[in-house]
Amino acid sequence: MKLFMLKSLSLGLLTTAAMALSMTHAATQKDENIEVTPLQKITQQELAAIYVLSEVCPGLVKDHAKFEQGYAKLAQEYLPAENNAVSSLAKLSKEKKFKPILAEARTDAKKAGDAKNQEICQELTTYSK
Questions:
Q1: Where do the TM regions start and end (predicted)?
Q2: In this structure, how many other beta carbons lie within 10 angstroms of the beta carbon of residue 12?
Q3: N or C: which end of the chain has fewer CB within 10 A?
Q4: What is the pTM of this model?
């Protein structure tokens, strides 16, 4: 079940974020009151899955600059309280208690295969827009 959730997260993470961005942009175009739902608590597994994208994607995308922009935007959305979410994720990846979670995320990314990972990574290159 945990493996399925992480695979689903890695595939659905960017799609969900892109949809939320589109909905936010469309909503700001109207003069309506919008009910805002607070963000749910981010799990260590989600942060690990995001960090693993920084390891996997550079070898799978052509436009590294756009990937870096999309990755930075995604990381900042998950860690809005951090001044630099990318460096915060890098620091977290070195913490002893985070290493088993990160290892599991790496295994899940490996099991997903290059085709799925490339699809996710490619979506990140357009996420910065």
A1: none
A2: 12
A3: N
A4: 0.68
